[in-house]
Amino acid sequence: MKRLKTSKRLKISKTLGRKAQISHVFTYLVILLVVGAIILFGYKGIMSIIKAGCQQQRISFEKSLYGFIDEFSNKGSVREEVLKAPCDIEEVCFADSAFCEPYGPTYESLPDDEVIKTNVMDCTANIFFKGEFTETPKFSPPYSDKISLKKAQAGEQGDYPFKCFKVRGGDFKFLFTGLGRKTQIESVWKN
Predict the structure, then answer these.
(1) Backbone angles phi, psi at 92, to 5 degrees
(2) What pTM was estimated for this model as a whole?
(3) One digit per residue, pLDDT tens: the chain, 191 residues?
């Protein structure tokens, strides 16, 4: 009789052991799914925070740049400004507003970039940002009739009529010179 009870206990304990092992597998799967979901949603959350930060940098950069172009057009005003580059911009390019004036520069002097050529020829933009793609400002007017680039004097090289400024150490450093109704833009750093 004792043997029978012991044998039943062994069968019951083996069955319970298997059930316990199976329940551990399900527990591990549930834990794995929960951790995976947390990682996935956490990654998406972090990426959206980074994207929002980049967008905020870009808004601030565009407002400052456009404000300086507008503000320093008075004849004789000279100002050197350092602007923090947004995380998605590697170069800022300008086309002289003379492109939209009669007898202005020829379009052959523009770079071989469809976005730039199309916008300058249509007089819809003369400020461009280069990063992964070339694009016009999103949060401020893409065209300013106040942009003037330095014309070359005899024996020197000028930026006229199109110039790109590269980011250096996370910043752009511009020299804004008022010419009356226009603002001449130069880079303080030599490319």
Answers:
(1) -115, 130
(2) 0.71
(3) 455 455 555 555 555 556 666 777 788 888 899 888 888 888 888 888 888 888 899 899 999 999 998 888 888 889 999 999 998 899 999 988 888 887 777 777 788 888 888 888 888 888 999 988 888 888 888 888 888 887 766 555 555 688 888 999 889 999 999 998 888 888 876 65
Token pair of 16 as six digits:
């319970």
Query: Domain-by-domain residue ranges, the chain?
Result: 1-191
